[in-house]
Specification:
The complex is a heterodimer of chains A (489) and B (304). Chain A is α/β, with parallel strands linked by helices and 489 residues long. Chain A has 2 domains: 288 residues, LigB-like (Protocatechuate 4,5-dioxygenase, Chain B, 3-Layer(aba) Sandwich); 144 residues, 2-Layer Sandwich (60s Ribosomal Protein L30, Chain: A). Chain A is built from 11 helices and 18 strands. In chain A, helix 3 packs across helix 5, helix 5 crosses helix 9 and helix 10 packs across helix 11. About 9% of the residues of chain A have low confidence. Chain B is α/β, with parallel strands linked by helices. Chain B has a single domain, classed as LigB-like (Protocatechuate 4,5-dioxygenase, Chain B, 3-Layer(aba) Sandwich). Chain B has a 6-stranded mixed beta sheet, with helices on both faces. A two-stranded parallel ribbon of chain B has the order 3-6. In chain B, strands 4-5 form a two-stranded antiparallel sheet. In chain B, a hairpin with an 8-residue loop joins strand 4 and strand 5. In chain B, helix 3 crosses helix 6, helix 6 crosses helix 9 and helix 7 packs antiparallel against helix 8. The longest helix of chain B has 22 residues. The mean pLDDT of chain B is 94. Classes of the chains: A alpha/beta (489), B alpha/beta (304). At the A-B interface, strand 2 of A face strand 2, strand 4, helix 7 and helix 8 of B.
C-alpha cells in the first residue's frame, strides 16, 4: 500500500462546514509504545501529519466517532465541558497511563443529541465526573489535538445499530454541525481488520494476523485513497465477513451518512501498519464539493435484510417450548427477510398471493388507466422466504448467484402478478432490468429473457438494462415491468 | 493446611441493583426497585457470612467487563481506590470504591494458569480502574468490602474463536484457580459475575426504577433461563456446562464470557444441588443469584 506524506491546506468547498474527514486507528500503541515497534512509530508519524493539517486549518471543532465507545442503549454524547481523568487500557495496561484533560463543545453535544432524539432514539448527554472516555477517542485526541487548540465533540457507537440506522445517525451529525455553525474536522476512530494476536509477541515482530486480512485492508485503503467513501460503505459488510473489520466497519457507515453518501472526495492514505495483528490505517478524505445536510434524507431498503445483532425483535420467534429453538442468525439474510402485507386498499392496486410478498410498503402492481405498472420483482419464491439460485457457504454467507435460475423465477413471479390483473407477458410493453454483475450475468440473463420475450411473434417490449451495486435482498437480478391492458392496435 | 472453596456463586452485576440499594458510595439516588434480586443477595449474604466456620478469607470475581485480548489478567497491586462510572448507565452507577486485593493469591493463579498452558498477566498499573461488573458483584455479595478480592479478567476467546474454545479455556482457568486456592491455604468464595439471558430493552422508563416497566425481554429467553436453573437445582453441572454454548447462542447469554464455567470447573463440576436465592429481570435481561454451597455439600474441599 502506497502512502503519502503530503500535508494539505484544507479548504471548505461550496460553503460547507466540513473541512476534512479522517479515519484513524484507536489502539494505544502509537501513543504509548511507538518506540517499541517501527510500524507503530510510523503510525504515530502519520497521525502527526494529520495533526499538522488540522493545526494549519481554520477548523473550529473536531468531532470524534469512536468504535470503542460502545453503547447498547441508544446514543450517548460527551457533555462535560472539561473531562479529566487518567485512563489505563484494560488490555495494554503495561504501556502506562493516559492522563487527559479535554475541552468539549457542549452546545454541539446538545444539538446532536436533540437531532438523534427527534429520530426516536434514546439519547443521553453525559456530564459526569470520571465518565470513562474510551481508549480510541483518548488516543486520537491526544495525537491529533494535544493542546486542545480546537474544542472537541464525542459521540458513541451503538453496537446493535445496523447500516441504515448508523447512516442516519451520521446524517444527524451533519444537521447538528450546521446548526452549530462551526467549521468542523470529522474523525472516525476505527481500526481496519480486527483479528488480534491471542498470544504475546515480541513487540518488534508485529505482523498482520493473516495475509487475507492484509489483502482486504489494502483493497479498502486503495478505494479510500480514491476518495470513494460511499463505495467502501457499501462493501463494509463483506469486508467485515472476510476480515473481521472493526465493529463491522460501522464507523465508515456513520461517516458516509454524515457526508450524505458520496464518493466525491480526494483521498490520501497517510499510513498503514499492523498493530498487534490488526490493521491500522490513517486516511484523509477531502471533500471536492460542499457537504451539506440533506433535507429529504430517507431510508432506503438496505436494512430490510437484517443480520442478527442482539436485540432486534423481528429476528426472534416464539416457539412453544425450549426444545424448539428461537431463530437466531442468518448471516446471508435469506431467512430473515421482513415482508409486508401488500396494501390493497388504494385504487388500482394489485396484489397476488401467487407472488412473493413485497419487502416494503408497496403493492405488487398498480393499474392507471390502461397501463399496469409492476413494482420491481425479484426471484423470491411465493409463500416462503427462500430465494432460488443463492449459493451460501457453511456459515450461511452468500457466496454467489445463479442468474439463470433467478431470472426464470423472476419471470414466474411477474407472470403471477400479471395474471392477477387479468394480463400476461404478452401485454408487457417495457422492461427495466437491474443486474448486480453485468459482466458475469448479462449473456446468461439475455438467453432466458429471449425465451420469454424475444421469440418470433413474442411481445418484444422495449428494454433498459443497468448494473446496480446491490439489491434489497441477496439477489442478482430484478425486473421492473410495465404492461398495456388496453385495446391492441 | 490446604485452602478451601466455601462457595461458588452465580452473581449477576446489573448496576441497577446497586443504584436501587442507595449505598453511600454511589452518587445517584433511587426510590428502590428490583427487590426480588436484592433480597436474594441478602439471603446469599446470610448464607456466606453467618456461619462462623464458613467465613471466607478472600472473594474471587470473574467479570465480563474487564475484557482482555491476550490471556487472562489478574490484579497485582494490594489496594485500589477510585471512582467507577458505568459507561452504559452512568446515571445509575457512579461508585467510589476502596478495596484490598489478595496479591499472593493473584500471583498463584497466574502461575497455575501458566501450568495449564494459558497466558496469564498480572496487572500492576496503579491508575487502573476496576470495572463496574466486579465492583457490583463484590458490593452486592459483601457490601462492607472488608474481605480482600482477586479480580480476573474475561478473555475474549469465545467472541474471537467460538463458545467451545472459550469454554475449554475457562475449564483450565477453573482448575488453575482451584489449585491456587489449595496452595494458598485460604477459604475462598468464587463469584461468577454473569447474568443469564441477555437480550435487553434499548430504552428505559423516565424513572429507571419504575417496576411497572420491568419484565423479561422475551418468553423464549425466560424458558431458556428456567431450563438452565433446573439443571443447577438438580446438581447436573456437567450437563449444564455442555448446554451453555447453545444457551449462549439462543438467549445471548452473558455466561459466554466464561465466568460460570470457570467457577463450576474450580468446584470440580459439583453434583449437589445449587440453591437459587433469586431470579428476576433487569431491563429485560434474566438474572439469578445462585449459590453452590461447597462448604455444606463437600466440606469446602478443593478437588485438584
Amino acid at each position: 500500500m502506497k502512502t503519502r506524506s503530503e500535508i494539505r491546506k484544507l479548504k471548505t468547498p461550496g460553503g460547507s462546514l466540513v473541512t476534512a474527514c479522517y479515519v484513524v486507528p484507536g489502539l494505544p500503541h502509537p501513543l504509548l509504545a511507538s518506540e517499541k515497534n517501527a510500524g507503530w512509530k510510523r503510525l504515530r508519524e502519520s497521525m502527526d501529519q494529520v495533526r499538522k493539517e488540522i493545526e494549519q486549518s481554520d477548523a473550529e471543532m473536531i468531532l470524534y466517532f469512536s468504535t470503542q465507545w460502545l453503547t447498547v442503549l441508544g446514543y450517548l454524547f460527551q457533555a462535560d465541558p472539561n473531562p479529566k481523568w487518567t485512563l489505563v487500557d484494560s488490555n495494554w495496561h503495561e504501556f502506562g497511563s493516559m492522563p487527559y484533560e479535554f475541552k468539549v463543545d457542549t452546545k454541539f453535544a446538545s444539538l446532536y443529541a436533540s437531532e438523534v432524539k427527534e429520530m426516536g432514539h434514546y439519547t443521553r448527554e453525559v456530564n459526569y465526573k470520571g465518565f470513562p472516555i474510551d481508549t480510541g477517542t483518548v488516543v486520537a485526541q491526544k495525537l491529533l489535538n494535544p493542546q486542545n487548540r480546537i474544542p472537541a465533540a464525542m459521540a458513541s457507537c451503538n453496537m446493535y445499530a445496523e447500516k441504515q440506522e448508523t447512516l442516519s445517525i451520521g446524517q444527524a451529525a451533519m444537521r447538528a454541525i450546521e446548526k452549530r455553525g462551526l467549521k468542523t474536522v470529522v474523525v472516525c476512530v476505527s481500526g481496519l481488520s480486527s483479528r488480534y494476536h491471542t498470544e504475546e509477541i515480541p513487540y518488534g515482530e508485529d505482523r498482520f494476523s493473516s495475509q487475507k486480512d492484509d489483502e482486504w485492508n489494502q483493497k479498502i485503503l486503495e478505494i479510500l485513497s480514491e476518495g470513494r467513501l460511499e463505495d467502501v460503505s457499501e462493501v463494509a459488510r463483506e469486508y467485515s465477513r472476510q476480515a473481521n473489520a472493526d465493529m463491522g466497519f460501522r464507523g465508515i457507515w456513520w461517516l458516509n451518512g454524515l457526508v450524505g453518501k458520496t464518493n466525491d472526495f480526494e483521498g490520501q492514505v497517510f499510513g498503514y501498519e499492523p498493530v498487534f495483528g490488526t490493521g491500522a490505517g490513517v486516511v484523509g478524505l477531502y471533500p471536492k464539493r460542499g457537504i451539506h445536510s440533506l433535507p429529504d434524507w430517507v431510508n432506503d431498503e438496505a436494512d430490510l435484510v437484517e443480520r442478527f445483532s442482539g436485540d432486534k425483535k423481528k429476528t426472534v420467534e416464539t416457539k412453544p417450548d425450549v426444545e424448539t429453538k428461537m431463530e437466531t442468525s442468518s448471516r446471508g439474510g435469506v431467512s430473515s427477510i421482513v415482508t409486508y402485507e401488500a396494501p390493497k386498499t388504494a385504487a388500482g392496486n394489485v396484489s397476488s398471493k401467487k407472488a412473493p410478498p413485497p419487502v416494503g410498503p408497496y403493492p405488487h402492481a398498480k393499474r392507471v388507466g390502461d397501463f399496469l405498472f409492476l413494482s420491481g420483482v425479484g426471484p423470491r419464491k411465493p409463500g416462503t422466504k427462500d430465494i432460488p439460485g443463492v449459493m451460501v457457504d457453511a456459515g450461511g454467507d452468500v457466496v454467489g448467484h445463479d442468474v439463470v435460475v433467478q431470472t426464470r423465477s423472476v419471470l414466474e413471479n411477474i407472470q403471477a402478478v400479471l395474471e392477477e390483473a387479468g394480463s400476461s407477458l404478452h401485454d408487457v410493453v417495457d422492461v427495466q432490468v437491474f443486474l448486480t454483475d453485468m459482466k458475469r450475468d448479462f449473456a446468461k440473463f439475455n438467453q432466458v429473457y429471449g425465451e420469454h420475450f424475444g421469440y418470433e411473434g413474442g411481445p418484444s417490449p422495449t428494454r433498459t438494462t443497468v448494473e446496480v451495486t446491490s439489491l434489497p435482498t441477496p439477489i442478482c437480478v430484478e425486473l421492473k415491468v410495465t404492461a398495456y391492458l388496453g385495446k391492441k392496435s | 493446611m490446604a485452602g478451601k472453596i466455601i462457595a461458588g456463586v452465580l452473581s449477576p452485576h446489573p448496576p441497577h441493583l446497586v443504584y436501587a440499594s442507595n449505598p453511600p458510595q454511589n452518587e445517584p439516588r433511587s426510590e428502590g426497585g428490583w427487590e426480588g434480586l436484592r433480597w436474594g443477595y441478602e439471603r446469599l449474604n446470610q448464607s456466606l457470612f453467618s456461619h462462623p466456620d464458613k467465613k471466607p478469607d478472600v472473594i474471587l470475581v470473574h467479570s465480563p467487563h474487564w475484557m482482555t485480548v491476550v490471556g487472562h489478567h489478574v490484579l497485582g497491586l494490594p489496594h485500589f481506590k477510585g471512582l467507577s462510572v458505568d459507561p452504559i448507565f452512568p446515571h445509575l452507577f457512579r461508585f467510589q470504591y476502596d478495596l484490598k486485593v489478595d496479591v499472593d493469591l493473584s500471583l498463584l493463579i497466574a502461575e497455575e494458569g501458566k501450568k495449564e498452558g494459558l497466558i496469564t498477566k498480572v496487572m500492576k498499573n496503579p491508575d487502573f480502574r476496576i470495572d463496574y461488573g466486579a465492583i457490583t458483584s463484590c458490593y452486592l455479595t459483601r457490601p462492607e468490602f472488608d474481605i480482600p478480592i482477586v479480580a480476573i479478567s474475561s478473555n475474549n476467546s469465545p467472541y474471537y474463536f467460538s463458545n467451545e474454545v472459550g469454554q475449554a479455556q475457562m475449564e483450565k482457568l477453573g482448575r488453575a484457580t482451584a489449585r491456587a486456592i489449595a496452595r494458598s491455604g485460604k477459604r475462598a468464595v468464587l463469584l461468577a459475575s454473569n447474568s443469564m439471558s441477555h437480550r435487553h430493552f434499548t430504552t428505559e422508563p423516565e424513572i429507571p426504577e419504575d417496576m411497572s416497566f420491568e419484565h423479561i425481554y422475551h418468553h423464549g429467553q425466560y424458558l431458556w433461563d428456567m431450563e438452565m436453573l433446573k439443571l443447577m437445582k438438580a446438581g447436573r453441572s456437567r450437563q449444564l456446562v455442555d448446554s451453555l454454548p447453545e444457551f449462549m447462542d439462543m438467549a445471548l447469554a452473558e455466561v459466554k464470557a466464561g465466568a460460570l464455567t470457570w467457577m463450576l470447573s474450580a468446584l470440580g463440576f459439583p453434583s449437589y444441588p445449587a440453591e437459587v436465592h433469586a431470579y428476576g429481570s433487569v431491563i429485560g435481561t434474566g438474572n439469578a443469584v445462585v449459590e453452590w454451597d461447597h462448604f455444606k455439600h463437600a466440606g469446602g474441599e478443593v478437588k485438584i
